[in-house]
Write a structure and sequence with these properties.
Blueprint: H1 3-8, H2 12-15, E1 18-20, E2 27-29, H3 32-38, E3 42-43, E4 46-47, H4 53-63
Antiparallel strand pairs: 1-2, 3-4
């Protein structure tokens, strides 16, 4: 198994093969190993995130004092 394939399988967020745009909320299916090899998808001029909208909200709440 190639390095990028191993990395793509090492985290549940990469294994679900889905990314989200933080700006417009668009979602896209992605081959995580291929994205790690050739570049992560972009939308609205920004790199898309592996954090779902619910996870983004939870992360923002954790960072508030």
């Amino acid at each position: 198994m190639a390095l990028h394939d191993k990395l793509a399988n090492c985290h549940p967020k990469l294994q679900r093969r889905q990314v989200w745009c933080r700006d417009c909320g668009a979602t896209r299916r992605v081959d995580s190993a291929d994205a790690l090899r050739h570049g992560w998808p972009k939308c609205c001029g920004y790199t898309m995130t592996i954090d779902s909208p619910a996870e983004q909200i939870a992360l923002a709440q954790e960072q508030q004092p």
